[in-house]
């Protein structure tokens, strides 16, 4: 099968999964356990995306300025600084590390 065929299969599968979601009873979705599971999955997905973007360079691991910026942002979060300041400090750390030749 060519690329367009696989693309159509993927679209049909995504649509079928979305339609199946409408068949889930509302009481299942409103339970406290489902709320905890959904929250945990969201945190896990965000953490894995952050880790991959911080250290991945294609198929290789790259320890560069992104990792330093992540460390500075994590420290700023631990100090409970405002989120905008966390972002600015992370960006500034990345810029300074790249200026210093780290990556």
Summarize the structure in words.
The chain has 103 residues and is mainly alpha-helical. It has a domain at 1-29. Helix content is 77%, strand content 4%. The protein has 5 helices and 2 strands. It has a two-stranded antiparallel sheet with strand order 1-2. A hairpin with a 2-residue loop joins strand 1 and strand 2. The radius of gyration is 20 Å and the shape is flat.
Element layout with pairings:
Elements (H helix, E strand, L loop, with lengths): L2 H20 L3 H4 L2 H24 E2 L2 E2 L3 H14 L4 H17 L4
Antiparallel strand pairs: 1-2
Helix pairs in contact: 4-5
Summarize this structure briefly.
The protein has 103 residues and is mostly helical. It has five helices and two strands; from the N terminus they run αααββαα.
Overall radius of gyration: 20 Å
Strand element count: 2
**Low-confidence stretches at least 5 residues in length (pLDDT < 50)?**
none
Strand order of the largest sheet: 1-2
């Amino acid at each position: 099968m060519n690329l367009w065929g696989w693309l159509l299969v993927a679209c049909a599968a995504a649509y079928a999964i979305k339609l199946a979601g409408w068949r889930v009873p509302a009481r299942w979705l409103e339970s406290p356990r489902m709320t905890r599971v959904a929250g945990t999955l969201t945190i896990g997905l965000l953490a894995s995306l952050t880790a991959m973007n911080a250290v991945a360079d294609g198929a290789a691991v790259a320890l560069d300025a992104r990792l330093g910026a992540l460390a500075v942002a994590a420290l700023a979060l631990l100090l409970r600084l405002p989120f905008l300041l966390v972002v600015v400090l992370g960006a500034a750390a990345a810029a300074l590390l790249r200026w210093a030749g780290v990556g």
